[in-house]
Amino acid sequence: MRQLHIAFWPLVAIAAIFLASGPAAAQKKGADKKPDPTVEKLPGDLSDDPEMQRKLMQLPEGFEIQLVAMEPDVVNPIQMCFDARGRLWVACAPRYPQILPGQEPIDYVVILDDFDANGRARSVTRYVEGLTVPTGLAPGNGGVYVGQGESLVFFDGEPKATRRSVVLTGFGTQDTHHTLNTFRWGPEGFLYFNQGLYIKSTVETPYGLRQFFGGGIWQLRTDRLKLEVYDRSLLDNNTWGHVFDDTGRSFVASAWPRDINAVYPETPLSKTNDRELIPSLKITKVGEGRHCGAELISGRHFPDELQGDLLTGDFLTHRVQRWKYSDAGGRDTFAAAPPLVVSKHRKFRPIDIKMGPDGAVYVADLYQSIIQHNQINFRDPRRDHEHGRIWRIVARDRPLLPNPGLTQKPIPAVLAHLKDPEQWTRTYAKRALLERDRKEVLAALPAWTAKLGTDERAALETLWLHQGLDEVNVPLLTKLLRAKDDKVRSAATRVLAAWADRVPGAAQMLAAQASDPQPRVRLEAVLASTQMPEPAAVAAALRALEQPTDALLDFALRKTVLLHRQVWYPEFQAGKFTFDGKPKAVSFALKTIKAPDAIPTLTQMLREGKVPEESRAEMLAYLASAGGPPQAGLVLDELLGKRLSADDKAHLLRALRQAASERRSPAPPDAARLVKLFDAPELAVSGAAMELAGAWKITPLRSVLRIAAEQASTRQAAIAGLAAMGDPEAIRHLKALAADHQAYPLRADALAGLAALDLPEASRLAAPLLQLPTSAKHDPSGLYVAFLQRAGGAAALTQVLQSSPPSPDAAKLGLRTVVNLGVKAPALTDVLQKAAGDTGVARKLDAEGMQRFQKLVQTQGDAARGEQVFRRANLGCLQCHGIAGGGGRVGPDLATVGASAPVDYLIDSILLPSKVIKEGFTTAHIVTKDGRALSGIVLRESPGELVLRDPLRDEIVLPTADIEERNAVGSLMPAALDQSLTDAELVDLVRFLSELGRPGPYALTHVPVARRWQIFPATSDLASLSEEQLGTRLHGLQNGMPAYSMASGELPLGAATTFARCHVDAAVAGNVALKLNDETGVKVWLDGTPVKSLQTIFLSRGNHQLDLRIDASQRKTPTLRCELQVPAQSPAVAQFSLTR
Amino acid sequence: MLRAAFLITLLLPSLALAQQPTALSLKSGDRVVFLGGGWMEQEQFHGYLETRLTALFPDADVVFRNLAWSGDTVRGTARTSGYQNPDGFARLLREVELYRPTHIFLAYGNNESFAGEAGLKGFLDGYWELLAKLTPLKTQVIILSPICHENLGPPFPDPTEHNRQIEAYSQALKKLAEADKLAFIDLFDATMAASRNSKGWTTNGVQPNARGYEMLASTIVRKLAGVQSKDFVVIYASGKVVGSGPHQVSHLKVTPTAVKWQCKSPVGYRVSFQMKGFEEGKFTARRDGKLVDLEPSGIIDHGPPFSIENNEDALRKEIVAKNELHYRRWRPFNDHQRHWGFIGGDGKLYDDLIAASEKRIAELRQPIVSQYELLKVEGK
User: Fold this and answer.
1) Please, what's the largest Cα pairwise distance for chain A?
2) What gap in Å lies between CA B6 and CA B236, rounded to an integer?
3) Is the pLDDT of residue B349 over 90?
4) Which residue from A175, A234, A954, B194 has the least number of CB within 10 angstroms?
């Protein structure tokens, strides 16, 4: 059938599309000028009629969506915000994303008011006009704050703005979708707004310069223009949604990377950009997805079962997504729930969501077919500069709330609203009070406070009001620090931090919080200590070590110890400060600051057995990586003892090797006893020991390594050890191992080792090997890698291969290695292509050809066939690109590429990969001083180091000092990738990509499915083992073949038995269940132990390995789909690992 | 009654009034660059300083470019935006060199001053380094001291201590300028005086508002070119004209019932005429035929001078418009590697718009020539 279908392809017509532009193409252009209207007509309706658009929206039963405003009143709404009077202010940017030089600035802020029963705003006032791309706004203080380019501007006047003043300036403008956005009034009445990852801000304030480079959240006290960085933990994010929950905790929703994170105050870190002090996303992540705009459902208009749910704008998939909040086990999570709105209209782009004073949900709809601005030209005619919509979602049959009249009522009546169930009303009641006469509000507060009784939430609102008024109230604070509700205690702890310098005995109060039975209070206490630069506060924070810690608490402890090092360490050295004599606190603090003079103290503590058992391995690892020969000797003692697990031993050996190779740290005396570890039953240990022997240059062990190199299991490690020794004798051994009579794998590995030491000799010996036929066991890929990763390696290899060409198969594997490594080696590629019989020329498309090709994609493309093309090994797509995590991580994940990128962009990206490169995928080619050559995307860089990712390795850390040469290169994606595809295959591939993330079979789901696998061959020795034995064996297997599930989450299976492995990360321990599409013939082991029931699997905190045996002969289903479920009562927070 | 002697018509040749020696003189082809932190950056959007300098040299085609940057320090630390600028100082030098300035105003020190005494040495080292790098450009350097921190009262911070620090930075810069024989303008003292006289020349204590920029422009021009923004011209009944500043009086004609003259003034510079030696009487005044208010009573001679505004708004607005174009060209939105392909063509469009704006500036900067007439209404 497939053959037949392909035979129908209009081959001649397709061939004409791929013409280089020339006279013939020009003639044709003249003959057929009209663009084909079907090209743009992809699924989904494009009618601009709002009623038509409304009908294409699906809402759950009982809900209704209403049009509030539309063009010309609202065009390209970017952000909206209510004022205390209940009017909705909207920032509109018809010129988004970039004004053309000379164009009149026509962007504006509009106020919508007086909403009728159908939601329509009867009053529309253009408050201020003539703006240029306003990206955020917040009305308040009698006017409106607007984020516009580099400035925060305040406009005031009634009924329209008559005055303009620049409040603060110096914010970065590097990217219009990163400039000041997501304005929101906080619980204490401060103004919060965000900036995105490419922004570099240098803002002059009356308190000094505030610099912040990267993604984060600013906090501004508008009464005194005090500007601080509230959060810098999400440095690499575009956080376009920020909510405060009822107890003042922040949750932010990012568009990039796609996740929801909990955010903790970071204010004191405004003094540093130290990456060590930025929590990793992994430990603050509480949900998934890609978002713009966020709001928590709160108030009587919405049904009880939706209270506290998070709404976010999923602009890629045209929905208002709902997330169910849970804090089971003390851990916050947001799990995907059925969306509130799903639209089939392609221009519906919900990018801001706000609860209104009436209790309804308001949605700003950018109304665009193009949303990206990185890949698509700013002046692309398809960008819409004329439309925009504001919608309102109401619960049918539930009354809307009346406007509380916060700006009109007397102060005591406004205070009474602090007890209202609607967060909107409480927030704006505080704002309204902060804008009243301060003295009058202060005068009304005692009577109100006296009436609070046991209502802790209302008391917390009152405490925040005090904070906004800058009026310290110690009795109220003291009471709430010991509130019954642990979330209130947490919130009060933050206020303690803010008032620390004005509250007597603050450090003692903090100590009580750090010893709280609830982990979240302990965490807040430790975070609070970061704002209290005194030894007593550090000691108070470290009280938290007396109870179990988690990753975030551990991070916060390290942060406070590091931040206040100058305060406590000199006191400690002088003997004046002792952490109350608690060895746990002392060892934690000393290890954390990595003070060189602390190493002897720590070594001593370790020798005297003063280090708590659970910290022992970590302490040894620190000494292994930071210490000298005495510490290495101590670690070696422990390695040869029996106290450490195999995992710990392997970790320590790696740390020692790193210290030896990077810091040139010499071997300890009597290092040759390391040989005892060569016989360790665990390969991870014996292999690491052999590599360490090389790094330590223990030459007496050379011949032992030579013998180990001839054993299959230890071959690679032993050769690595010999190569690391690098002396003439070691080279002689390597040459002998690479001799013609040796087995293929041994030759290949020995040559790989030799390549690092003697390139001409290695390439001379490689040529005959590469002329041999290849097979699964005779694979020269590793040899190619060794050459390609040496400076001059590709050239040396090219030279010998020109006269002795490799076999066609070896050449093809070489080409694949070049592709997979992402290196540019044109001369070698030429030689290999000749040997493999490739042409190496990419297609060329002129404008007309592009249009016709798009039409073919639309009419003839088959996404399912396209996915098969995508998964072909020789294309290497999966090597670099994942789909929802299933695949490589060196290129952009493609899970939603179809929803965000137009078809012409997808085609260009395949044919001309370097034409446009997605943000965050800058590529660098590096040559190190010791002659290694590396290409990869720049993950991050600081003055001291550069971190790259290449297709083979997740993170390559390069000290800047080791870099000899650095060049920017285009895309890592190889050019002419399409040349191995037929035209029909290319059309299918594009169709597949264009469907990814769009409604239909390739829509993005938030269901956790295993997508990253390792496959192990079903060797005969495994068949004879018992279940228990098999579990142990499987657990120890290493270096499986990477495999990835299809977009649907299904892993294709072979005909025979398959051993497959995936990993699960559990942030909070608890029971989970595995749901398989077909359990027949499947046996599962968790960390080597057989799983009795897939319905109840207990996961402790940390990473876990799942090994599966799948007997395909018993199954009817040719695929395996494995879903992770958390039972309703379980506190577990777990997900399939995206990194392993 | 006017004295008979003044029946003589005094046809004065175009009289250039005595001017103080100017430290700054601009001619066609000169290029002026402003460098510094936030207050100098924002000056371009108010435009007072550039307007006053432009009007003072109406015949000179001078290119003014403001390259100041909010949050910048003398080491160019704020200029690392836009992905190809890992080193802000290198960018600063590269961009200054691009304009080959003949004159350069340096307005650094406000940001550094927050570091207090501890930061002073580093600041001066940085300043010396910048001056050394500018030396090959053979440009006239004008050092501006940091401006003071205005006390706006609570809840804004009390700037007393900060001002002590700024003063130390200002004094150190003065010494540095003396050592290197460079022009130095003390804006600290001037702004402290302004703060004492009337509050509200800044928006937040550190960022001047329109009034603040007008005051700063007046101070700089007065100190640099010896020109007051408001200058007196005294016209004696004898026909003598005494005055200072950039105003040129000619065609003076005195009769018993009328005094007529012509005055040519730079745009934006107010002129005040004081009549001396005339017999008392009530007069009406006209400028280019239109009545001028003669406060308080229309009586001249012993009365106060009367002031004439030479409105600069049109010129200033055009200068601001030109600056906005240059700013957007120099620091465009989306200044990001991945967007260059989309906005690369904007540079040429901006250049054309800037050139057109500079043509309009050349017209608008021409001096204002007015005919004045005092007519006697009644005798003593």
Assistant:
1) 97
2) 10
3) yes
4) A954
Structure tokens at A1001: 């079979």
Question: Is the minimum CB–CB distance between B21 and chain A shorter than 8 Å?
Answer: no
**Hey, what are A366's tokens?**
């950018």
Check the CA dihedral B340-B346-B350-B351 and report its sign.
positive
Interface test with B, best of A164, A204, A222, A909 (most B CBs within 10 A): A204
Query: Can you list the residues of chain A whose pLDDT is less than 70?
Result: 1-46, 266-282, 372-375, 838-842, 916-920, 922, 940-943, 952, 969-970, 974-976, 979-980
Q: Give the whole-angstrom CA distance, residue B110 versus residue B40.
A: 11
The three-class DSSP label of residue A388 is coil
- In the three-class reduction of DSSP (H, G, I as helix; E, B as strand; rest coil), residue A316 is classed as coil
Spell out which residues of chain A touch residue B37, defining contact as CB-CB under 8 Å. 204
User: A168 to chain B: which residues are within 8 Å by CB?
Assistant: 204
C-alpha dist (Å) from residue B121 to A272, A535, B112: 22, 31, 10
Which residue carries 């402290």 as its tokens?
B192
Query: Pick from B207, B337, B346: which is nearest to A204 by CB?
Result: B207
Task: Print burial letters for A49-86: b (CB count within 10 Å at least 16), e (below 16).
Answer: ebeebbebbebeeebbbbbbbbbebbbbbbbbbbbbbb
* Residue B183 pLDDT: 93
Question: Which residues have a Cβ under 8 Å from the Cβ of A387 and sit 6 or more positions away?
Answer: A48, A70, A71, A75, A76, A347, A367
Residues in chain A closer than 8 A to B334 (CB atoms): 97-98, 173-176, 373, 378
Q: How confident is the model at residue B295 (pLDDT cuts 50, 70, 90)?
A: low
Q: How far is A929 from chain B (nearest CA, A)?
A: 22
User: Residue A204 and residue B341: Cβ atoms within 8 Å?
Assistant: no
Would you say A870 and A995 are in contact if contact means Cβ atoms under 8 Å apart?
A: no
Taking the CA of residue A151 and the nearest CA in chain B, the distance in Å comes to 10
When scoring B338, B346, B351 by the number of chain A Cβ atoms within 10 A, the one with the most, hence best to mutate, is B338
What is the distance in angstroms between the Cα of A78 and the nearest Cα belonging to chain B?
16
Quick check: B353 contacting A, CB < 8 Å? yes
Three-state DSSP at A450 gives helix
In whole angstroms, what is the distance from residue B286 CA to residue B294 CA? 10
ipTM of the modeled complex:
0.91
d(CA B273, CA A797): 90
Residue A373 has a pLDDT of 66
A175 exposure class (CB count in 10 Å sphere: 0-12, 13-18, 19+) = buried
pLDDT mean over B275-288: 82
Does the beta carbon of B111 lie under 8 angstroms from any beta carbon of chain A? yes
> Of the candidates B49, B7, B47, which has an alpha carbon nearest to the alpha carbon of residue B318?
B47
Q: Please write the tens of the pLDDT for every residue from B172-211.
A: 999 999 998 999 999 999 999 989 987 899 999 999 999 9
Distance from C-alpha of A316 to C-alpha of A322, rounded to nearest angstrom: 15
Pick B346's closest partner by Cβ from A101, A201, A208.
Answer: A101
* A-to-B residue pairs, Cβ atoms closer than 8 angstroms: 126
Q: In this complex, do A916 and B205 lie within 8 Å of one another by their Cβ atoms?
A: no
- In this structure, the dihedral spanned by the alpha carbons of residues A465, A468, A473 and A475, taken in order and rounded to 10 degrees, is 40
pLDDT of residue A415: 98
Token duo for residue A544: 């938290």
With residue A956 as reference, give the H or E element that holds it.
Answer: strand A956-959
- Assess B321–A contact: CB distance below 8 Å, yes or no: no
Sign of the C-alpha dihedral computed for residues A1087, A1093, A1097 and A1098 taken in this order = negative
Dist CA B68 CA A963 (whole Å): 34
Nearest CA in chain A to B356: A102
